[in-house]
Amino acid sequence: MSRYEYNVKDHNAEQQSVCEAWNTAYNLNYGQMKYDIPEATGSGVLSSSFINRDIRIINYNLSLKDPIEMRGVSKEPHIDIMFCLGESIHWDLPESRKEFELIQGESYIGISRETKKECIFPAKCNMNILEIKMPVSSASILFQEDCYAGTLESLKPRLLSNERHRISPAVGSVIHQLINSPYEMKMSRLYTEAKLLELLSFYLSESLLQTDKPALTRNLTKEDLECVYRAKEILDNNLVNPPTLNLLSKLIGLNEFKMKKGFKEVFGTSVHAYVIQKRLEIAKTLLDSDSLSVSEVACRIGYGNVSHFASAFRKQYGINPGSYMKNIRI
User: Fold this and answer.
1) What strand order describes the sheet that includes 78-84?
2) Distance from CA of residue 319 to its chain's centroid?
3) Phi, psi angle pair for 189, to nearest 5°
4) Which residues, listed in sequence order, are joined to residue 35 by a DSSP beta bridge?
């Protein structure tokens, strides 16, 4: 049975095809699906994975040439969790005469009880949204299984307030692993489910279960936030040879003090510590899936001294890279 049914205002073949893919992604009841956006409509990929308990993970990594207006219904209350991994984005919501906005690096969590929906997806925006759709009934069971009995009911006021939170480094790391599975077929499904549960554990703990932690307050302007995320993008593309702080601040158009302060505020860590963390995450992935030696992995991620690499790896993961490699490649 379809839980979500959407159609498009403009019934040309390309937009209709995109809408059908949206419906398939929302109503997937087994396995995974991947849809390449038609060239006439835009570019990118829409993918979806079905997880036990009727939970779906939908990854929108696409850009549209023209706005697409979708109208439809959601037949069952569900929890939506969204992570904005790409450009800041907003949806026009004509039905309620409101707008829905997510700034890059933000997450959103809320209960959707609306039965009628109408939204306009913008054009010329590099949308990269990871969405988790979870029926309220499934969420209740999940909370009970994880020893949070009664918690979901007590959290409903906060869920109904549609809170936003910054994506922490820990959550961001799990998201990266989730959408870059090193496995295929059945192992991929098991890996995806395990990473989803890990992501929910981190995210719900940080955003909702820590009652003393307030929801996101935007101390930085939207323009400053975009600069900070541009700095992150530059670092992600140059982890082996990152620019100096002075050059990085010039590249993004913020003074060095404001950049360092903003980076720490958004990502919870310094620029230097972030680079080390991301290098070591890549190293762990290489040790997981390749046949490289420890020294080769160290060289690939920019460490000229293997002992320095081993020390940093041990500090982050609690085990020497050599021992980790032996354990993982048994």
Assistant:
1) 32-36, 42-51, 55-64, 127-135, 78-84, 106-112, 163-166
2) 27
3) -65, -45
4) 46
The predicted model scores a pTM of: 0.69
Residue 163 sits at the vertex; the CA angle it makes with 76 and 192, to the nearest 5 degrees, is 65
Check residue 33 and give its pLDDT: 92
In angstroms, the CA 7 to CA 253 distance is 42
| Contact between 293 and 324 (Cβ < 8 Å) | no
Whole-number percent of the chain with pLDDT over 70: 86
- Tokens linked to 12: 């040309």
**Burial class of residue 149 (count of CB atoms within 10 Å of its CB; 0-12, 13-18, 19+):** exposed
Judge whether 56 and 48 are in contact, CB under 8 Å: yes
**Concatenated DSSP letters of 3-55:** SEEEEESS--HHHHHHHHHHHHHHH--SSEEEEEPPTTTEEEEEEEEEETTTE
User: Concatenated DSSP letters for 43-99?
Assistant: EEEEEEEEETTTEEEEEEEEEESS-EEEEEEE-S-EEEEEEE-SS-EEEEETTTTEE
